[in-house]
Amino acid sequence: MEACGLWFRYRNAPSYALRGCDLRIPAGCRLALLGANGSGKTTLLLHLDGILRPERGIVHLDGVPQAYDRRSLRRWRRYVGLVVQHPDDMLLAGTVLQEVAFGPLNLGAAERDALAAVERILAELSLTHLRDRPIHLLSGGERHRVAIAAVAVTEPPVLLLDEPTAGLDPTAVEEVLEVLDRLHRHGTTVVVSTHDVDLAHRWADTVAVMVDGTVGRCGGPEILGDRALLGAARLRPPAVVRIWQSLPETLRPTACPPDIDALALFLTRARFRDQPVGSG
Ligand code: ADP
User: Fold this and answer.
1) Cα(6)–Cα(84) distance, rounded to whole angstroms?
2) What is the pTM of this model?
3) How does DSSP classify residue 192?
C-alpha cells in the first residue's frame, strides 16, 4: 500500500501534522516507522487505516486509490488492521475469548466460524492458555499480545501497530516481537511505529524515518547510519551502528550487524580466527 502527498491538520491545531507525507509499504515487509514524539507517526497510521482523511493527498491499496464511502471503508477494514498505542483503549471488559471473537463477529462471521478463528489465532500466537482469562487480570505484555490477536484474528494482509513495545519490560518486548514475527512468517505485512532506533535496526527490513510530518527517507536499516537524517529527526543512530562506525576498518564487518550481540559474536570469532594455533 502507499500514501502519496498526505497533508493533514487537526482541528484547531496551529500547524500541519502531516506535510506532503509519502510512504510506500512493500507487501510482505517488516517496516519500522521511526520518529521522535510529535513527528506524525500516529497521524500517518490513522491515515493508512482510513480513520483520518487527508486534506490533500491519497492512499492506495493494491494500486487502487481509496475512497471514503462506507463500502470502500469496509473493504479497507478487511485489508488493514490497526493496533492502537494503548491496548486498554481498545480492549473491552470480558474474557480474552470474547475480546478476540469481537472482530470476526463484527465482520458478520457466524458464531462457530468466529470461535474457530479465535482458537486458530490464539494457538498461532501461543496465547491459548489465556483464553478464558478476564482482560483486567492480564499483565501489560499479555494485554499487548491479546490486542494484537484481536486485530490479527480477521487476517488483514497489512497490520499497523502504534508503538507496540512502549512501556514494556525487555521480556515482554521480545514476546511481542515474537508474535509479530509469527504473523510476518504467515505473510502479513507488519508496520510498527516506534522511536526506538535500536529496535528498528534489529527488527525491520525497511525503515521509514519521519521528520516533522513527512517521511525524510525510507530504505534498508543501513539508512540509520545517516547521522544528518537522524539529527533532523531528533534521533541518534542505534548503538550498534555507532560502535560499528567507530571500529578500525580492519576489524569492521562489511555490513553493520543487526544488534550488539551479533557484532560481539563477529568480533569474538574474528579474534579466534586471527590467533595462531597453539597460542593462549
Ligand atoms: P507521533 O505519533 O509521532 O508522536 P502524532 O501523530 O501523535 O506524532 O502528532 C503529530 C502532531 O500532531 C503533533 O504536533 C501533535 O501535537 C499533533 N496532534 C496529534 N493529535 C492531535 C489532536 N488530537 N489534536 C491536535 N493536535 C494533535
Assistant:
1) 21
2) 0.94
3) E
Residues 123-168 pLDDT 10s: 999 999 999 999 999 998 999 999 999 999 999 999 999 999 998 9
Query: Is any ligand 1 atom within 6 A of the Cβ of residue 17?
Result: yes
Rounded CA separation 35/214 (Å)? 10
Which residue type sits at 26? P
CA 25 – CA 59 distance, rounded (Å): 11
68 lines ligand 1 (CB under 6 A): no
Residue type, position 206, single letter: T
Looking at this protein, which amino acid is placed at residue 108?
Answer: G
Rg (CA), the chain: 21
Tally: H helices and E strands in the chain: 11, 10
Nearest CA to ligand 1 atom 12: 17
Neighbours of 89 (CB within 10 A): 8
Amino acid at 155: E
Q: Which atom of ligand 1 is nearest to the CA of 35?
A: 3
In sequence order, the 6+-apart residues with CB closer than 8 A to the CB of 212 are: 19, 39, 40
d(CA 205, CA 243): 20
